[in-house]
Amino acid sequence: MPSPLSRRAFLSRSAAVGAGTAVAESGLARGESATAQQNSLESLVDDAADRALTNHDAGGVTVAVVDGDTVLTNGYGHAFRSEGVPVRADETLFRVGSVSKVATWTAAMQLLDGNRIEADASVDSYLDAVDIPRTYDRPITLEHLATHTPGFEVRSRGDSVRSPEYVRPLAESVSTDVPTRVRPPGELPQYTNYAAALAGQLVADVTGRRFGTYLAESVFEPLGMTESTFDPAPPELVPADDTSVEDVVSFYSDVAPASGLHTTGTDMARLLRAHLNGGVVDGERILSASAVAEMHRQWYTPHEEIDGMAFGLFEEFCGGTRLVRHGGSVPQFASEFALIPTEGVGLFVVAHGDDASEAKQEVVDAVLDRFAPVEPTGNALSPSGTPDRADELAGRYRSVNTTDNATSEKLVFGLLTSRPIDVQVTDDGRLLTHQGDSTDEWVEVEPLVFEHVQEDSTLLFRDDGGTVTHLLDGLSAYEKVAYHERLSVQGWLAAIATVTALTGLVGWPMARGWRRFRGGDSPPSSAIRARWMAGAGVAGLALFVVVLAGVVVATASMEGPTLFNRPPSWLWVVFLVPTAGAVVTVGAVGYAARAWYRSEWSLASRVHYSAVVGAAAVLYWLLHYWNLLAV
């Protein structure tokens, strides 16, 4: 392997600014002071990239900025896992994660632009590879997919695999384990990879070409994006001569339209230009000007005070400047694609490394501070009184990614993903939200709508039939949960119930052995049968834990996709174990009821038996709550 060079040796930008990409100082000086004019955009980006690589654990960054006729594309640091290879904006590949969706939605807009599909027609009428469950009367449309409002649950399974050999054809990926429809389309935003993957398959089915082929021929080639590819494992990603991609990469997208693009800074500059120049780059048109405008307009918002969705792009206001943007991340990579359509300004940044997200954001903040500065808001807002329905607002809200998940992944989302939000209302009328270590203050500006006291941010509470059910922090939705649904409460319940249940599973055999050793009367036969049934119910819980742990260990050591990424089709059998145990426990509840009704056994025996059965019932309820029963 080439001898590694220091990070500092790479901080000077690579030779990636060629003919037609030089910085035009006159275009940078709009409305700037003499001092600011001396700091060119190139210097600003160089300084930001310097900080990104110096202050964060990141190995390389590539940046593309478009400002009218000015196009800047630079590379910094070294290529991914190749410390002897400098980043070149025109040839070094980066993974861009969910920024892949920008290309996907651009392709979908092409079909709308050519009148080959309609945005408000059922996608089922265009899809050949997959049938959408008809859970609700209202059909899912392309508009719903592009605004992340189709009503699908969020799933991680099927999103990625650990080796390129396991990547499936897109048609197979989107038609296997179709997510459950958990609400009518258009009702609530919920970001999913499946929406973009399904849109990609729609493009493939309508055009009769593979998704990657269509993008290459209809988007990349006309724009001159010569290095961009949806190949799951392009060898150029890790260009070191003695290192293969498979040796250093463990994430491969199984839903390419959502997260499978590999590209360069120079290529993405051309996509930025297409979106800013009415669909044309160097005389090659991929969209009509009206289609570009349609793609950038607001298509959905849950409330007029909340930033909404354009066609596949997120709407965001920085001060008074409207952006349409999309971020992305996969392991070791983080990216940003942002447009200011009214100013003809676009930005693309991608970084790699353990702190890729922080490094990327360092550059994004610096550039946006130039083109979309946020002025201080001045005096903080003050409440004018107690919020309407204050008592209903207080409580805990958990991400709908968890609450609306219909699979065993619910527990994974609940434990490992977005943190809940706790809401309280103070005596002076302020609304406080606590999420992790952060606390924010809000003031009601209209019923169920709150503005941040200092920042340009809005909270919206959703009313369903007279009951407050959801909180929307921007486009992130949270559902109000009852006290017994809190993880802390359930954790204590699980701990107490486990100890109690074990007093029966372990205590009854020990007591029987002690009686045999010391002598003594055996309990009534009805008590023995009851204990066997209750013990079998508790044993079902223990067996489930053992079997599940064994499956996790076995699949981790086997060749093939991981249990988390693509569970085997037979995994449902594992959940039959606790289901059978739950059925047995129902029988044990019957024994307990009969014992109390007939005053059988001693009082102490009835109390202990009921406690053991009740504990088992609590544990099975928890399994049911987290979708760990085969029902």
UniProtKB/TrEMBL annotation:
Asked whether the keyword Heme is assigned, the reply is no
Which Pfam families would you find in this protein's record?
Answer: Beta-lactamase
Tell me the ranges covered by the Beta-lactamase-related domain, including all copies: 46-358
Q: Does the keyword DNA repair apply?
A: no
Query: Which InterPro entries did the record assign?
Result: AmpC-like, Beta-lactam-related, Beta-lactam/transpept-like, TAT_signal
Keywords from UniProt, A to Z, are:
Membrane, Transmembrane, Transmembrane helix
Gene3D superfamilies (UniProt xref): DD-peptidase/beta-lactamase superfamily
Please give the start and end residues of each transmembrane region.
Answer: 492-511, 532-558, 570-591, 603-623
Protein name per its UniProtKB record: CubicO group peptidase, beta-lactamase class C family
Q: Which organism is it from?
A: Halopelagius inordinatus
| Source species taxonomy | Archaea, Methanobacteriati, Methanobacteriota, Stenosarchaea group, Halobacteria
